[in-house]
Amino acid sequence: MEIRLCDNIVRFRKSKGYTQEELAKKLNISSQAVSKWENAQSLPDIALLPALAGILETDIDTLMGYIPKKKMVTPYEDRYNAKEYYWGTMPNEMCMEVLRRYYPTRPLRLLEVGCGEGKDAVFFARNGYQVTAFDVTESGIEKARRLADIHQADIDFFRADLRDFRLDEDFDIIYSSGVFHHILPELRDEIMENYRSHTASGGMHAVNVFVEKPFIPEPPDSDLCSRNWASGELFTCYKDWMIEECREVIFDCNSSGIPHKHCMDTVFARKMPDRKGE
Ligand SMILES: C[S@@+](CC[C@H](N)C(=O)[O-])C[C@H]1O[C@@H](n2cnc3c(N)ncnc32)[C@H](O)[C@@H]1O
């Protein structure tokens, strides 16, 4: 899967509220040139990139979908550098539920968002799914590849930041555990819509998110660039889908060596064919 400059130009331009003409004017070029970039018919001249990134209030790396090798987006980069697997190598309980609800009797394309060190992706691949998985950490992806090699699991792992990355192909299943609190609230509608629209008809989302509860203290290993979801917020993303199951659970965790609690919302939702007008 590649991150496409053309999609990023469209997305950042629209988020700034510029038309193609307005962007072209600011760059002193023709609107046809902008249209060609956005339709992947040509690439911007390299000399224009600093101005383009500046006008779109981003940086060249983000625009190109490139994460510099040394850039640390999350503390997990360091945590995954240890020899041991931070989350162990046993799959999350949710994986069994996916298997039960949408068994791969035919090749099913599954995307894992924020795969960490790869335990769940490897489980899915070993059980017959065609797995694509990404995480922002280089250390996590390296370990995930190693785990996949040990189990001879063929998985398309890559490094991407979910805040900048958008899907341009469809999946039968989108799975993510403990990751979507890294999508800041202002990006949630857009990213969830991208994931929903790139889900095949009959496809499934199996997702959980950490949620805010006033009576649960901040966990000791919480990440500054994350924001818990509101209780129930995740379920509203699937109001047009069939919600097979949704639940909210408070559980104990020891991830940093200090016992603490989390509250988590989980949903299994199905994209049903649209029958309106039949
Ligand atoms: C709580 S861990 C869960 C990991 C994995 N899903 C699991 O259950 O083992 C959160 C994961 O989100 C990843 N992450 C954090 N910020 C991210 C971002 N902006 N883009 C992609 N992944 C991110 C972290 O690297 C980490 O692997």
UniProtKB/TrEMBL annotation:
<keyword id="KW-0489">Methyltransferase</keyword>
<dbReference type="GO" id="GO:0032259">
    <property type="term" value="P:methylation"/>
</dbReference>
<dbReference type="InterPro" id="IPR001387">
    <property type="entry name" value="Cro/C1-type_HTH"/>
</dbReference>
<protein>
    <submittedName>
        <fullName>Putative S-adenosyl-L-methionine-dependent methyltransferase TehB</fullName>
        <ecNumber>2.1.1.-</ecNumber>
    </submittedName>
</protein>
<dbReference type="Pfam" id="PF03848">
    <property type="entry name" value="TehB"/>
</dbReference>
<dbReference type="InterPro" id="IPR010982">
    <property type="entry name" value="Lambda_DNA-bd_dom_sf"/>
</dbReference>
<dbReference type="Pfam" id="PF01381">
    <property type="entry name" value="HTH_3"/>
</dbReference>
<keyword id="KW-0808">Transferase</keyword>
<dbReference type="GO" id="GO:0003677">
    <property type="term" value="F:DNA binding"/>
</dbReference>
<dbReference type="GO" id="GO:0008168">
    <property type="term" value="F:methyltransferase activity"/>
</dbReference>
<keyword id="KW-0238">DNA-binding</keyword>
<dbReference type="InterPro" id="IPR029063">
    <property type="entry name" value="SAM-dependent_MTases_sf"/>
</dbReference>
<dbReference type="InterPro" id="IPR015985">
    <property type="entry name" value="TehB-like_dom"/>
</dbReference>
<feature type="domain" description="HTH cro/C1-type">
    <location>
        <begin position="9"/>
        <end position="63"/>
    </location>
</feature>
